[in-house]
Amino acid sequence: MRKDIHPDYQEVLFHDTNADVFFLTRSTAKTKATREYEGKEYPYYPLDISSASHPFYTGEQRKTSTEGRVASFNKRFGAFGGRSKKAADAAE
């Protein structure tokens, strides 16, 4: 095997922040943060989702509020639709 061509393969502590679950496994992920786990210091890598919190693996479905999503969209992009409602009412 040639030297200095492979990334550093080390134990890394992954943290699913949604489920508050820690996974210790070997990885080439690079991170500057460290955290102590079971009395030993490991490189720390936070995750938004993993098999511990993903609906496919947990069997739980999360329903989002459609009304809230539409209102949020209109709030962000409603001004791009051309004339505002007040201008349209005034023109009539």
TrEMBL record:
Keywords annotated in UniProt: Ribonucleoprotein, Ribosomal protein
Matching InterPro entries: Ribosomal_bL28/bL31-like_sf (IPR034704), Ribosomal_bL31 (IPR002150), Ribosomal_bL31_B (IPR027493), Ribosomal_bL31_sf (IPR042105)
SUPFAM superfamilies: L28p-like (SSF143800)
Highest taxon above the source species: Bacteria
Keyword Ribosomal protein belongs to the record: yes
One of the record's GO cellular component terms: ribosome
Family (UniProt): Belongs to the bacterial ribosomal protein bL31 family. Type B subfamily.
Binding partners and assembly: Part of the 50S ribosomal subunit.
Name of the protein in question: Large ribosomal subunit protein bL31B
Source organism (scientific name): Psychrobacter pocilloporae
